[in-house]
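Try this one yourself first.
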């Protein structure tokens, strides 16, 4: 049985502290802008700015610099990895700009490439922070199980046209609805998953997960674990044993980034 394009990654937390660029300023004098952003992450090295790499944050901050004439530091709800997409990423920044929300929206979408779109610009309350104010985030992972994938979908799904025990996978997905230490699926941290569901949409499996926080590659690792269950390499009742082990194993490979999408952030 083939299980191509899955990998084991070393644990690494994505829950870093926000930068403190505005500590020396009177925040009451600055507007707090909230952006809702959609992007195709295929050609990017993730959200977070990196020297010499093309990233969503880097390009958006550069567009803001050109529009506003000042350095901007975007704070995002979550730092998506390279190749991961977003339908509803949220970020905020502070500025004394006199531009209206509508003017800034138009200007940003003029400056940005077509695979990054600003869906909305809003004025938020002074204490709003895209990450710290979030109550939960929702991710979705798409697995295409048909023999052929449309060229209009291949960038957004993991193609796995092999036999899977879908009932066992659905049962295993429910085992992740818990508040626990997720060291077996990424770097160690206690998180609460509110919803973990696998649905069969005919030729596609949709895994949806909502939690109060996510670790680096955590959703992709859970997805890889579900596929191992579908292949018969792991039983749903053995998920609890993985949690107790608190370390990565070969039963939790990391599914490819292209199937993952940040759907929305709840406040």
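Now uncover the answer:
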């Amino acid at each position: 049985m083939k299980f191509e394009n899955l990998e084991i990654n070393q644990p690494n937390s994505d829950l870093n502290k926000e930068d403190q660029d505005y500590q020396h300023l009177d925040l009451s004098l600055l507007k707090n802008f909230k952006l809702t952003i959609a992007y195709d992450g295929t050609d990017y090295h993730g959200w977070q700015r990196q020297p010499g790499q093309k990233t969503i944050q880097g390009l958006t901050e550069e567009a803001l610099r050109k529009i506003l004439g000042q350095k901007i530091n975007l704070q995002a709800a979550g730092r998506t990895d390279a190749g991961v997409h977003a339908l509803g990423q949220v970020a905020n920044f502070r500025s004394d700009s006199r531009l209206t929300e509508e003017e800034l929206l138009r200007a940003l979408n003029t400056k940005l490439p077509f695979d990054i779109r600003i869906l909305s610009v809003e004025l938020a309350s002074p204490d709003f922070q895209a990450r710290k104010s979030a109550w939960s985030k929702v991710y979705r992972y798409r697995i295409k199980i048909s023999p052929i994938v449309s060229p209009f979908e291949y960038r957004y799904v993991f193609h796995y046209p092999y036999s899977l025990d879908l009932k066992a996978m659905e049962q295993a997905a429910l085992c992740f609805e818990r508040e626990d230490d997720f060291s077996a699926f990424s770097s160690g941290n206690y998180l609460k998953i509110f919803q973990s569901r696998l649905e069969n949409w005919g030729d596609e499996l949709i895994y949806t997960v909502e939690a109060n926080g996510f670790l680096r590659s955590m959703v992709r690792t859970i997805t890889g674990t579900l596929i191992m269950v579908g292949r018969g390499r792991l039983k749903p009742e053995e998920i609890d044993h993985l949690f107790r082990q608190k370390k990565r194993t070969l039963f939790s490979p990391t599914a490819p980034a292209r199937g993952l999408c940040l759907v929305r952030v709840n406040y």
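Discussion: Residues 136-266 form a domain with the Alpha-Beta Plaits fold (CATH 3.30.70.660). The longest strand covers residues 85-95.
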